[in-house]
Amino acid sequence: MNIEELDAPGYERVVYASDENSGLKSIIAIHSTKLGPAAGGCRMYKYGTVEEAKTDALNLAKGMTYKNAAASLPLGGGKSVIIADPHKDKTPELMQAFGKFVNALEGRYYTAEDVGISVEDIAEAAKFTSYAAGLSEGPFGSGDPSPVTARGVYLCMQVAAKYGLGSADLKGKTIAVQGLGHVGMYLCEFLANAGAKIIATDINQKAIEEAKSRFDATIVAPDAIYAVEADIFAPCAMGGSVSANSISQLKAKVVAGAANNQLADADCGQLLADKGILYAPDYVVNGGGIINVAAEILKISDQAWVNEKVERLATTTDQILSEATANNVLPHKIADQFVDNILASA
Ligand code: NAD
Question: Which end of the chain has less Cβ packing within 10 Å, N or C?
Answer without folding.
Answer: C
